[in-house]
Design brief:
single chain, 46 residues, mainly alpha, elongated
């Protein structure tokens, strides 16, 4: 069933996936053109 080794592997995979998503978001925020586009899209909702 759910062995400790499988649980540890799933936990490690979740942490790695989370860090990859955070790194991707950080890379987008370092681009000023992306930030302007994001703010323009947010402003257009109002």
């Amino acid at each position: 069933m759910d062995t400790p080794a499988r649980h540890r592997w799933m936990q490690t995979a979740a942490i790695v996936a989370g860090l990859a998503v955070l790194a991707g978001v950080f890379m987008l925020y370092t681009q000023p053109a992306f930030m302007v586009t994001l703010i323009d899209q947010l402003w257009s909702c109002f």
